[in-house]
Design a protein that fits this description.
The protein has 384 residues and is mostly helical. Helices cover 72% and strands 0% of the residues. The protein is elongated, with a radius of gyration of 28 Å.
């Protein structure tokens, strides 16, 4: 949605005809943007139909805290643009709740905005104005912090588009210095350009090494943002995937010691315990996770699996059914529930298992055994 806004700004700043009237320029520009308006209208209609709203609050953030946090985020992004070091998939950017904590970042933002306005007023540079718009407009949506998950309010990817404006502004600055003869030596100015390019290129290549694999990425995230619980939880899950169970459990417990209400770590810990066949611990942690997030289907399903393995079969079956009801699209759940019903052995449970195997085979044709087990049960019933 930012693209048509930037296109409109571009046509206002760089009109085809210098003598063209502003009103006419606006009308013609808006006419050329009609295809974008149709696409955006269709997208918003489809989004509203699917979500029953244009957006949903993910994290409860008060308006006051949102506004107080914005200056810190802008200072953080400015630092990344000017000095892109210590990059990571995770950052420690906390919500600001007091005016005192927001004072210094807010003053820095006001100083930068004042300097930018003064430069634009003095130079009357349309390319510079457009560069500032390319930097600022794409950041507006991610300033609504309640729409972003906790711990995810700052990311490098939010700067992909603004970085284009920053590079354009940097190029304009070099061109101005070159034409004004700031150093009186052309070779020095040209060398400065290549030195900056080499510095950013080398830095980018060095920072990219941390994306070699998930273990390196998440370990880097914990190192850069030690208070980011998502980074620690993701690191624990990767350690578990690699078979380092004790290290993974230690990370999960460390996260929950810091915040016992952090649902993701609680669920992941419960699932890890379930996968290690420690169903007593898994049942306890998955039960707590189900209280913290009563809408997650996997929590209830694996809690049901734990209860079933512990001998509470009826409760386990009910919990697994509830997990499937929360999201019928989840693959493999129906076949796993059918396996449990087969173990129950009654006529009614076997017939329910047959229907579940059939549904799994239709909805998830890649399942390795659902179709075969459905055929085996069909043959079993036919033989009676």
């Amino acid at each position: 949605m930012m693209v048509p806004m930037l296109l409109f700004a571009y046509e206002m700043l760089f009109p085809p005809e210098a003598t063209e009237r502003v009103a006419q320029r606006i009308r013609e520009s808006l006419a050329r943007l009609i295809p974008f308006a149709i696409l955006i209208g269709g997208y918003l209609a489809a989004r509203f139909h699917t979500l029953q709203a244009l957006g949903h609050q993910i994290t409860p953030v008060s308006l006051k805290s949102n506004l107080l946090t914005i200056p810190s985020l802008l200072v953080f992004y400015a630092r990344l643009l000017l000095l892109p070091i210590q990059l990571s998939g995770f950052y420690d950017i906390a919500y600001v709740t007091t005016a005192k904590a927001a004072l210094v970042p807010a003053l820095l933002c006001l100083a930068v905005i004042g300097l930018a306005v003064a430069m634009l007023w003095r130079w009357r540079s349309h390319p510079a104005a457009f560069a500032f718009l390319v930097m600022a407009l794409p950041l507006l949506p991610v300033m609504k912090l309640s729409l972003l998950p906790w711990g995810e309010i700052a990311h490098d990817r939010y700067l992909y588009f603004p970085s284009v404006g920053f590079v354009l502004l940097l190029g304009l600055l070099f061109r101005w210095a070159y034409h004004r003869g700031v150093t009186r030596k052309r070779w020095a100015e040209t060398g400065a350009v290549f030195a900056v390019m080499a510095l950013y290129f080398t830095g980018s290549m060095g920072q990219s090494l941390y994306w070699a694999d998930n273990l390196v990425l998440y370990a880097r995230g914990v190192n850069i943002a030690p208070n980011n619980l998502i980074a620690r939880t993701d690191l624990a899950s990767e350690l578990l995937r690699r078979g380092r169970r004790e290290d993974a459990l230690a990370q999960y417990h460390d996260v929950l010691r810091r915040n016992p209400q952090f649902w993701l770590a609680r669920y992941d810990l419960g699932y890890a315990e379930y996968s290690m066949n420690d169903c007593e611990s898994g049942s306890r942690d998955l039960q707590l996770a189900s209280y913290q997030n009563p809408m997650d289907p996997e929590t209830f399903f694996y809690l049901g699996q734990c209860r079933f393995r512990l001998g509470d079969r009826e409760t386990g079956i009910a919990l697994m059914r509830h997990g499937i009801d929360l999201d019928p699209r989840m693959p493999n759940f129906r076949a796993a529930l059918a396996d449990a019903l087969v173990l129950m052995g009654t006529e009614q449970n076997l017939r329910s298992a047959l229907e579940l195997y059939r549904a799994e085979a239709i909805g998830n044709p890649a399942h390795p055994t659902a179709a075969r087990r459905a055929s085996e049960l069909e043959a079993r019933f036919t033989a009676r």
